[in-house]
Specification:
Elements (H helix, E strand, L loop, with lengths): L2 H10 L9 H9 L4 H9 L3 H7 L10 H30 L7 E4 L9 H17 L6 E4 L3 E5 L2 E5 L3 E5 L3 E7 L11 H24 L10 E7 L6 E7 L1 H15 L1 H6 L21 H9 L9 H4 L3 H10 L8 H6 L6 H8 L10 H14 L4
Parallel strand pairs: 1-2, 6-7
Antiparallel strand pairs: 2-5, 3-4, 5-6, 7-8
The structure holds iron/sulfur cluster.
Protein name: Secreted protein
Organism: Thermomonospora cellulosilytica
């Protein structure tokens, strides 16, 4: 274990390290300026358990119903050697169905460990990338690796399609419906962010073996149900913007030592698990430790981070405008707190020279709110 690992382990404490998923890496791009999240994720701390221990338990992620629906839809399109999917991809990618093969990579004989699966996946994908053969292959549940803050993250895309002509496409299968061509943009954005992580992992695999990383397309194929039936349809997502965001976040994670440097000596998020694995750490002490890690709360955190309730409460107590997001903070210029903005709005605080315009706008908004105009 190197010095950085030792310090990250000390920050995490005795809890086993949580792995990085593509969803977690994508979540980092949603609030790249948050040192708290970067430190917790780099150390492998369990954000959900920490949040519960400091008094903010809560369900995070998809509901059981949504997960079950997602699994059922995925099984449907992958049934019979991915027959439905192949039919769709033939149209989109020009795959000759009679030539295409379907390769499930969920386990490797009796070996289902991540390392063995990742090595097996890498062998097959590299062989496919080097092979001039035109035959397309669908690689189902490959295990990819990505270096995050010096650690190996193991990622498992729904599927990677190898197109005729030697180009890989990541396929994401999601169960949210596209109704009359309309989709929930938040869900599509989340799918694109996640797929960008897979594209990057695949590109790095090729680059590490002197192959052209651009052989992995930035166009991701999103398979969703059409309308209210379960008939699958394919949409193409361009994930170049998301790829750039993931790269920026990973660069920041690679400089995690500078964030660690700024922490007070001895700060730890150790849950002090007992023999049964239950946390025994004093919640007030743990909460105080968390406050030592600088956060940058945004309303979007609620969709991406297990600590959102804790951080929102912290921002509210600090009277911070962060609870309303960066757009409002930008509009209010140098006004830093909620109470300062309210006092300017109701006229109980005289504006400084550089606040006159903002104060006028706030008073106007307040008068509209009170129905006085
Ligand atoms: S919820 Fe808190 S820790 Fe998570 S990203 Fe937002 S501010 Fe950072």
């Amino acid at each position: 274990m190197n010095a950085l690992d030792t310090r990250l382990a000390a920050l995490r404490g005795g809890t086993p390290p949580a792995g990085f998923s593509a969803r977690a890496i994508a979540g980092l791009t949603a609030n790249p300026g948050c040192a708290r999240r970067a430190l917790l994720d780099a150390s492998g701390a369990d954000k959900g358990r920490i949040s519960a221990r400091v008094g903010f338990p809560g369900r995070f992620g998809q509901s059981t119903f949504a997960l079950a629906r997602g699994r059922a839809f995925e099984e449907q399109v992958k049934a019979d050697g991915a027959a439905q999917l192949l039919a769709l991809l033939r149209e989109r990618l020009g795959l000759a169905v009679e030539e295409a093969a379907y390769l499930p990579l969920e386990d490797v004989g009796e070996h289902t460990g991540r390392e063995v699966r990742a090595a097996h996946t890498a062998n097959l994908l590299l062989r496919a990338a080097r092979d001039a053969d035109d035959a397309g292959t669908l690689f189902d549940h490959p295990m990819l690796r990505l270096n995050v803050a010096g650690h190996t993250a193991y990622l498992e895309p729904d599927l990677v399609a190898f197109q005729v002509g030697g180009r890989f496409h990541v396929v994401e299968i999601k169960s949210f419906a596209v109704v009359d061509g309309q989709v929930d943009s938040e869900q599509v954005t989340a799918a694109a962010q996640q797929a960008a992580v897979y594209v990057l992992a695949l590109r790095e695999l090729l680059a590490d073996h002197d192959l052209d990383p651009e052989a992995v397309s930035h166009e991701v194929l999103l398979v969703t149900p059409a309308n209210f039936a379960n008939t699958p349809m394919v949409s193409v997502l361009d994930v170049r913007k998301q790829l750039a965001a993931v790269r920026r976040v990973l660069t920041r994670m690679s400089r995690i030592d500078s964030l660690l440097e700024a922490l007070p000596e001895g700060v730890t998020l150790d849950l002090a698990l007992d023999a049964e694995g239950n946390p025994t750490r004093d919640p007030a002490e743990l909460s105080a430790a968390l406050h030592q890690l600088p956060a940058r709360y945004r309303p979007g955190c609620r969709a991406h981070c297990e600590l959102a309730a804790f951080c929102r409460d912290e921002a509210r107590r600090a009277d911070s405008l962060d609870v309303f997001g960066p757009a409002l903070g930008g509009m209010l210029g140098g006004v830093d707190t909620v109470s300062a903005a309210l006092a300017l709005a109701d006229g109980t605080r005289a504006p400084a020279d550089d606040e006159v315009e903002i104060a006028r706008a706030l008073r106007h908004a307040e008068s509209l709110r009170c129905g006085l105009t």
